[in-house]
Structure prediction request, 306 residues.
Amino acid sequence: MKKKAIEILNLEKVYSDQKALDGISFDVEENEIFGLVGPDGAGKTTTIRILCGLIYATAGTANLLGYDIRKDRKIIKNLIGYLSQKFSLYTDLSVDENIAFIAKIHGVKDFKRRRDELLNFMRLTAFRGFLAGRLSGGMKQKLALACALIHKPKILFLDEPTTGVDPVSRRDFWKILSDLLNENLTIVISTPYLDEAERFNRIVMLSDGKVLRYGSPDEIKGEITKPILEIVSPEVRNATNFIREKTAFEVQMFGDRFDVVIDDYETDYPLIKKILDDNSIPVIDNRLKPVSLENVFIKILKEKNR
Prediction:
């Protein structure tokens, strides 16, 4: 049985009269990639900031590697690494200078070998003399990650690390995080992107400060056992409205396409196609697709709103 890196029980955070966290509970196992998943305002950043000791919880308890976040803040500080949403390093310092500065804050005296390993790992060696402000968005994230790892933390917190990063840099970033698990590191990531959450070992889905679901992506996707029919159409809104009016199928919109939770393709697609044809709505393409976390998340929110 794996050890618990983080244990959270009934955690609450209240700002004035607003509850940012409403009694959330979950565990994070050692040496896994764990995701806090949900839209803006779900409570992801608040949770990470509490666990990093940056703000206090209003109620509830949390332990990191057996240490209490209230009583043992000084000990926890050197056991964790933290990468915030916004780039917070010094833009007028070079790559090397930023790493040296962060190492000094953590009391790491002999850091040069570790620094060189991280720069090579992040493919930043050729840019070590560059000012941080001159780096691209993806390279800034890699530098921030190197700084967060310079003192060899046991738990790494990343708050929406790929927001605003180009697709190529995002792919490189995920490869780096996957390789970091070889360092016996526990990684906790917040993201609003449900497609990214598919990469995690386990996730907690948050909305309005509450836990919606908690488990592995496959366990959560298992809530939808029926086939998902994806239809591409230039008139998505009209198409979904007509299908909702004429059938009892669950319908979900995604840009220029929509998903329908059906019972059987051979019988249900002809019925849907006829409804669209009768209302002069063209179908560009259709296919059966695997259940996604987006499908489950939308289903849960609809049930919650009902």
Summary: The chain has two domains: 4-221, 228-290.
